Amino acid sequence: MSDLMFRPLVAGESALFNSLAETESGTRTGSGDAFVGRALLGQSFATLDAGGEYRPEWSWVALRGAKVVARAAWWAKPEDSEPLALDWFDFAEGEAEAAAELLRAAPLTTEYSLLLPPDWRERPDVTAAARSRAAAVEAAGLRELVERYRYEWTADCPLPPRTGRLEYRPEPDDAAFRAVMARVMEGTLDAHDRRMIAEQGLEAALDEAIGFFDWFPSPADWRRVAYTPDGEVAGLHVPAHNPGGPCVGFIAVVPEQRGRGYSYDLLVECTHDLVDRGAAKIAAATDRTNVPMARNFAKAGYPIVQERIDFVPDGV
Q1: Angle 202-215/191-200 helices, nearest 10 degrees?
Q2: Around Cβ 158, how many Cβ atoms within 10 Å?
């Protein structure tokens, strides 16, 4: 086999990056590969100069001669100086080792979310494609953090009735809202929050979470703190819009109020708030290991439309 060369793209090379995904007939290679990663979303890749979202210098290819055998592209917001996530990661059949070398060669290290259909475990070709990608990113130095469910409520789904057990108020004071966030972080079941707290501390976890809320294009005054009939804080919910549309941004209950089913109340209220603002489709997600929240989504009529496995840099 010819020697490998690893390099980033330059402006005008979107077609080179996309050449991996097509055979001579123009169809995707491998039935399982077509349902794993960004291909699952039916999205196309393009660099900024071609009207896309990706910076050429953060979009890398592995070449054998003139043929692309592996590719990787990292994404960030326009104002960011560092990438936030590895979005695209694919390789030709038999080129898993080259793909791992590509990730090691690129001077970029971020989280990677492997997107999967909800029935991926029952489809041998898709399972094989998922496992090959997982093995490649792990060989490159990432480790599996958590599996997650992605949900999508639509207007065709029943709208769960409000429970009426809690009172919801906006909290315009940033410090007061942060204080409630600090309380709900205690004993959280969210793997990303737990990792951040363990590695960098509570304040860093709060900065990351609230920074994510601030990134939403929806206004901060949509956020609600929930209170019991006795006036005690029960938790909070964040109805939001992300760049793709309405979403359940965050739901959590303070430790002393857990075990009363309030997370379901919060989910229902968040759903109603978004529907009242015109949402006909609402995205949401939770960890597969967060069994109570997964049950709440099922109870509220949110179908699972996608799964994913999140990988994080090992030791970072």
Answers
A1: 130
A2: 8
- Crossing angle between the packed helical segments 174-185 and 202-215, to the nearest 10 degrees: 120
Q: Give the H or E element holding residue 233.
A: strand 233-242
Where does the chain have alpha helices with state H?
14-18, 96-105, 124-139, 174-185, 191-200, 202-215, 262-276, 291-299
How many of the other CB atoms lie within 10 Å of CB of 115?
19
Q: What's the token pair of residue 26?
A: 């123009």
Q: Do the Cβ atoms of 153 and 284 come closer than 8 Å?
A: yes
**Residue 7: DSSP 8-state:** E
Q: 134, 112 in Cβ contact below 8 A? A: no
The string of pLDDT tens digits covering residues 215-224 is 999 999 999 9
Q: Angle at CA 10, nearest 5°, toward 70 and 33? A: 25
Rounded to the nearest angstrom, the gap between the alpha carbon of residue 193 and the centroid of all alpha carbons in its chain is: 13
pLDDT in tens, 265-291: 999 999 999 999 999 999 999 999 999
6-55 pLDDT, tens digit per residue, is 999 999 999 999 999 753 323 344 556 778 998 888 888 999 999 999 99
3 state SS of 173 = coil
Listed in sequence order, the residues at least 6 apart from 280 whose beta carbon sits closer than 8 Å to its beta carbon are 154, 155
Does residue 69 sit in helix, strand or coil? strand
Which class for 198: exposed (0-12), middle (13-18), buried (19 or more C-beta within 10 A)? exposed
